[in-house]
Structure formats: C-alpha cells, structure tokens
Amino acid sequence: MEFRALYPDELEKWLDHVTHVFTGGRQYFSNHWHNDPWRDPEGIRIAVDEGKIVSTVRVFIRKMFLHGELVTVGGIGEVSTRPEYQRRGLATQLLKDSIQFMESRDIVMSSLHGSQRIYSVEGWERVPRYYARQPLAAKKQVAWEVRPANFDDGAEVKRIATIYDAYARKFNGTFVRDDMAYWREWVRTESPSAWVAERDGSIEGYVSVIRREDQLNVEEFVASEAAFAQERGKQLFEDMLSNVIAQIDEVSLEVVYPAPIADGFNAPVIDEHGSTMYRINQPDALSNSFDSIPNLLHNQPQPLSQGIKSHHVFWYTDGY
User: Fold this and answer.
1) Beta strands 109-112 and 69-81, pairing class
2) Distance between CA 254 and CA 293 in Å, rounded?
3) If we measure between CA atoms, which residue out of 97, 105, 86 comes closest to residue 122?
4) Per 3-state DSSP, what percentage of the chain is helix, strand, and coil (rounded to 5)?
C-alpha cells in the first residue's frame, strides 16, 4: 500500500473513486475541485493499491476568521475508503499524513464536519453549533428592495464581498473569501437561491437560502455595518426573509438559521444541531490564550463581543 499526494494527471481517477464511494454525484466533486481557487493536488492524500486509489482524504486550504483575525485552516473533507478496503486503518493513516501536510504548509488550524472517534483520536475536538427556528410570515412591503443576487455583475459581487468581510469577522469559524474567483465560481454554484437587500442604490444585505418542505434554511447571511447596528441586523434579517417568502408565493415558513446571527438566541426554539471539529496544529501561532477549543470558538474578546451565548458560525455555502 502506497500513501502519497495525488499526482495532477490522476484527477479523473480520484473523481472516479469519490463518485464510487459517495452518493453525491461526480459533478458535485468536480465542482469542489474546479471552483476552488486554492485547490492543490498536494492537499489530496491517497492510498494506492496496485495502481488503484482505494482511500483518500482531501485538505481544503482556507483561511477563517477567529477573534477578528485571519487564521490559516485546513478543512478535512472527502474522507472515503472503498468498502472492500475498510477496517484496515487506511483513513487513519491518511489523516496522519494530512496533519503532516498541514504542518509543512504552516496551517494553524484544521476543521471538519463529523463526530467519529477516528477524528477525536487524532486530536480534533467537537464544537457545537446552535440553530434558531422561528416562523416568519410573507411580507411584500419592507424597508429594502429584495431581489436575486446578480453574480454576473462584477461591481455587485465586490459590494457583497466587502460587506461579507466586515460581517463574517464578527464571528469565529466563518471562512475568509478574499479571492473574487471564489465568489464567481464556488459561492455562485453553492448558492442557487441568493438574494440581496438594496436601499438607495446601496446593497445592505445578502442571504442564501434552501427550501426544504415547510422550512427555509439560511445557508448564510450578511448585513452591512449600518444594518448591523440595528439589533445585530434583526430588522434586515426578518424583512429579507419575509420578502423572500412572499416572492416564492408562500404565506409563511419556519426559518432555520445560525442562532448567533440577528436575534437568534431569543427565537422561540434553539437547537444544538451538528458540530464542527477543530484541531490546533500550531498553538503558538494564535494570538489569544485559551483553555479549550470550544471556548476558543464560542467566545469573542472585547470589543468584538456581542454579549451572546456563542460566536461560533459556519456557513453551509462553504461546506466541503
């Protein structure tokens, strides 16, 4: 068994592998490769048996906001082993290989979505995510013009990116999007229902949603500094979602969204739903001391603290 990085000319073989193991479809994995401006074949770690890829782990090279600062992070995704090769320790070996890769690139932290013991044994620690649920009724007349986002308009995308940067850094775990190609390719593909709120010719809000039966799930939300000043963007959030509900011809829907945003921790229902696991690769590179990884992610130092239960947010749009 050979453990190494993917060679550039093996991409199609790797796509064959992940398509065989997962049910997401080849296009999903192809998009995650070709739409990623930070893609690197060295970040795809593979186990090869007699020329066949039988197990793989991919490190998505990113930066995330932590206490208002930019921190390099390696997202662990596409962990997959062919059924006939499972229970041989291949994924564990590839995780160890991925850690060495991240250390060689000076990647400070690592994150992944899962809770299996295989991850905790290698040093990843679970950090819960909290979601709010509240019904919102359709409302056509709001303080903003709410319309679909236009990713073909470069100026509009830059405006969204600007307010995203200021808003996302208020939380911990949100990814940095400092390459416009990421907006044009990745975000556009992963956000088929994205909307903006405009007033007096200026975009003040952005939201991406997915409809699931009688629910409207918020994949991400952004508020301008002016809108955020009004109860952390509560009015903007509720106006945008109520208007979107009206535009999709519904009377009301239950809206599910990360509890740290808007006024979520005061919503009728708060659930702990899922988690992100984090590993600190280089503790000395962090500017603030911490006693545990959950406390590091849930808490925010002054003056960024908003006085809420948790500041930990991960946007599904950035999912890997």
Assistant:
1) parallel
2) 32
3) 97
4) 35, 35, 30
User: Is 194's pLDDT higher than 90?
Assistant: yes
CA 117 to chain CA centroid, Å, is: 22
Answer whether residue 35 shows pLDDT above 90: yes
Q: In 3D, which of 201, 202, 165 has the Cα closest to residue 182?
A: 165
Structure tokens that stand for 139 in this block: 């409302």
CB distance 222 to 168 below 8 Å: yes
**CA–CA gap between residue 30 and residue 15 (Å, rounded):** 7
Residue 184 DSSP label: I
Please check whether residue 314 lies inside any domain of the structure: no
Domain extent at residue 259: 131-272
Domain containing residue 247: CATH number: 3.40.630.30
pLDDT digit string (tens) for 152-178?
999 999 999 999 999 999 999 999 999
Nearest to 280 by CA among 77, 130, 66: 66
Q: Which two tokens stand for residue 180?
A: 């416009």
- Average pLDDT value over all residues in the chain: 96
Q: What are phi and psi of 59, to 5 degrees?
A: -100, 115
- CA distances in angstroms from 193 to 136, 206, 317, listed in the order given: 18, 11, 11
pTM for the model stands at: 0.94
Q: Do 70 and 44 form a contact (C-beta atoms < 8 A)?
A: no
Query: What is the signed CA dihedral for 146, 147, 153, 154, rounded to 10 degrees?
Result: 40
Q: 81-96 b/e with 16+ CB inside 10 Å = b? A: bbeeeeeeebbebbbe
- 305 domain residue, yes or no: no
pLDDT digits (tens, 9 = 90+) for 36-66: 999 999 999 999 999 999 999 999 999 999 9
| Residue 24 in this model has a pLDDT that exceeds 90 | no
| Residue in the structure block whose two tokens are 């918020």 | 218
Residue 185 is classified by DSSP as: I
Residue 182 in any domain: the answer is: yes
Predicted pLDDT at 75 = 98
310 domain residue, yes or no: no
Q: What does the DSSP 8-state code read for residue 7?
A: P
